[in-house]
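Customer ticket, subject: "Can you confirm the structure for Cytochrome B?"

Message body: Hello, I'm evaluating your service for our small team and ran a test protein. I'd like someone to confirm that this is what the system normally returns, since I don't have a reference to compare against.
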Amino acid sequence: MTASSLPSPPAHYSWETRWLHWLTAVLVLEQFVVGQVGWHLMARTAPWRPFLVATHTSLGVVLATVFIIRVAWTLTGGRAIHFPIVTMQDRVARSVHRLLYMLLGGEIVFGYMARWSTGRPVMAFGVPINSPLPMLMHGTHSFFSGLHHWNAWLLFWVALFHGFAGFYHLFIYRDRIFQRMLP
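Agent reply: Thanks for trying us out. I re-ran your input and got the following:
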């Protein structure tokens, strides 16, 4: 089989893959903004703070669900475009994707652990999700809360790099990589 007879890659990722990608992106951005405003920029006594906390925890549960679906979709092959890893750029792209998955998974776990370490359930749209673990030591809250905070910033910067790489492909390389992920 010659190079010219090889099938060309599809023009787009599957609609499921694109939907999961953009839903994850929107939820991560929302979670970051609401988390920063609700915990770091707004006074603890501000009237909107309870709403922001409820929004953050509820949509955090939605994000966790989307993340689990996305991981399952990826592990079962989904309908992704599979490319051989040839160049250093391919290696970096694959590594960044893996790092994003690890950071997002960690962020979700740290968020649950930070909440459960206070002895309170994670509330999702008014429904409590109790800890499946025995009572965590009260001294672990600042540890998990700190991990959740700093991992959020790391996730933010890596996701921003990922987004800039997409725009680099769109405007500089003009290789249609960005268009494959458009809805």
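A couple of notes from the result: The first strand starts at residue 122 and ends at 124. Strands lie at 122-124, 127-129. Feel free to reply with more questions.
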